[in-house]
Request: fold
Amino acid sequence: MRIMAIDYGDARTGVAVSDISSTLVGDTFVINGRKENLVVQRIIDEAKERSVQCIIVGYPKNMDGSIGHRAEKCENFAGLLRTQIAESLPQHIDVVLWDERMTTKSAQRILTDVGKFGKKRKETIDAVAASLILESYLGSLK
Reply:
């Protein structure tokens, strides 16, 4: 079973997809776009093409566990994704919110450690964050 993780952002959305055995991150990429409906459609197209059975949406709670503005945006995005999947695909795909506190900070640290700065960093940080969300989720399955 392939699992897809999403790091939803205002301008860029990071995506990571597991291998078929759901043990490793197999592919990562970024969807550029500010229009929520277009991002959702692109995710659905990618999920269909890759035979994804579960989509994990990063849920950036505050450090104290409360729900802030960014987490609410991700909740709404996950709801829209669920609705569009139900309306456009014959098969069911689970959409799960996953606590991703500190994921972007960890992604920034990783990119700093490998010497990525400036434009290169901006182009990859969301994909790295999505891969960390996916790794966290896959680890919870074991």
Observations:
- The CA atoms of residues 18 and 25 lie 4 Å apart.
- The domain at 2-141 is CATH 3.30.420.140 (Nucleotidyltransferase; domain 5).
- The chain has one domain: 2-141.
- The first strand starts at residue 2 and ends at 7.
